[in-house]
Amino acid sequence: MAKSAVTAVLDAPLDVIATATEMYPCEGQPTSRADAISKSASLAIALDSGDFAKSTQGTARRLTVAAQSATANASRPVDHVALCSGSVLLAVTTSPSQNANNGSPINIAAFTIDSPLPV
Questions:
Q1: End-to-end CA distance of the chain
Q2: Are 102 and 74 in contact (CB under 8 A)?
Q3: Which of 47, 60, 77, 112 has the highest count of CB atoms within 10 angstroms of its CB?
Q4: Helix (H) and strand (E) counts for the chain?
Q5: Cβ distance 2 to 64 under 8 Å?
Q6: What is d(CA 105, CA 85) in angstroms, rounded to the nearest whole number?
Q7: CA distance 62 to 36
Q8: Alpha carbons 81 and 92: distance in angstroms, whole number
Q9: What does the DSSP 8-state code read for residue 102?
């Protein structure tokens, strides 16, 4: 039996993630917003609706998060990115590893999050 879902169903989780107002480049995978802040190499990078774009990728829906940059306020490795809104950790993804140095720029490349068809 074939599986299908309307775009609105596939977009629902992406729509929630796209409400993120903060991005934190982190050392390790955070488990909460407070943990993301404590593991972050920078202050919150502000996000708004213009930083998110949805598209179709094969049978999945895709959310692209625009590239961001910030000034590091700590020296530590960065290998994850946390997206938060208010007090909620909405999503975490891995990122290319880089070493943040206090006072130097941190660059986060654009990345995608997919919402595939149910299996």
A1: 11
A2: yes
A3: 47
A4: 2, 9
A5: no
A6: 23
A7: 24
A8: 6
A9: T
Give the global pTM: 0.92
Cα–Cα distances in angstroms (integers) from residue 35 to residues 48, 79, 83, 94, in the given order = 22, 14, 12, 15
- Rounded Cα distance between 117 and 35, Å, is 31
Reading phi first (left if > 0) and then psi (alpha if -120 to 50, else beta), residue 53 is in beta
> At 112, which amino acid appears?
T
109 Cβ neighbours under 8 A, 6+ residues apart: 67, 95, 96
7-66 pLDDT, tens digit each:
888 899 999 999 999 999 999 999 999 999 999 999 999 999 999 999 988 878 999 999
Q: How far apart are CA 54 and CA 18, in angstroms?
A: 9
